[in-house]
Amino acid sequence: METLPHQLLNLSEQAALERLVQSDEPLVLLFPQNSQALLEQQFGHWRLEGSLLQRLLEKLQAVIQELREIPAFQANMDLFQHLLAFCYYPLGSGSSDPTELPRGHRKLRTLLLLKALQTVRAHWQEKRKVSRQNRSAGSQSYCRLQELTIDLRYDFIVVPAEYTANNCEGPCWRPLSARIPDYSSHTLLLLDMQERGTPLQRSPCCVPVKYSGMEIIRFTGEGMQVTTYPNMVAVECGCR
């Protein structure tokens, strides 16, 4: 993935840390074999305090409330509670600390749990969106968003096991305005030529016209790095 366009964030900079907390983008967590030792090196340099820490806890609480609606999340509540016990979140709510972890350890785990749960939420929302679109389409065939899941189950990837990249499928027919809001006058002219039997070297195609990004967290000898990759998930389709 290093060959893809990306932006690398340095979490030793406060602005980069704030951006990571504020972001709702789904992400991939990469843990090499020596990640535990690398994590231990970072705890002493971790600076997550004040209003930024409060914002982190608020976002974690909000995403937990949303995920409680998902049956799969409800079925794994015991696992979630176990993970939460290693975070700063229980201390923030007045609970005791059964793990006796230093606060720096707990804050880092809280941030990682938030990003993992945001990824779960994004995956769930995307599946619901595609499902609604397909139900509304019925038996009609036209250019629309289709779910496409990519398997990420490698030894060094912890979260997620897969991610929904999506794809666009279906023919481009007139009229476009009823089903496909994103079209151009050029596309309409091509469709008009196609209907009149004029040969075209390339007929209008159903393609993604809007994307969302993805963040990747990896642990290296230089610390925890966050890389932002744009245009990783197709969210809207159009005819071009």
Automatic annotation (TrEMBL):
Claim: Glycoprotein is one of the keywords in the record: yes
GO terms (BP aspect): cell differentiation; gonadal mesoderm development; Mullerian duct regression
TGF-beta family profile domain residues: 125-240
Principal place of residence: secreted
InterPro entries with a match to the protein in the record: AMH_N, Cystine-knot_cytokine, Muellerian-inhibiting_factor, TGF-b_C, TGFb_CS
UniProt KW ATP-binding keyword: no
Keywords: Differentiation, Disulfide bond, Glycoprotein, Gonadal differentiation, Growth factor, Secreted, Signal
GO cellular component: extracellular space
Domain of life (superkingdom): Eukaryota
GO MF term list: growth factor activity
Places the protein is found: Secreted
SMART domains associated with the record: TGFB (SM00204)
Family: Belongs to the TGF-beta family.
PANTHER family: MUELLERIAN-INHIBITING FACTOR
Self-association state and partner proteins as the record states: Homodimer; disulfide-linked.
Name recorded for this polypeptide: Muellerian-inhibiting factor
Source species: Platysternon megacephalum
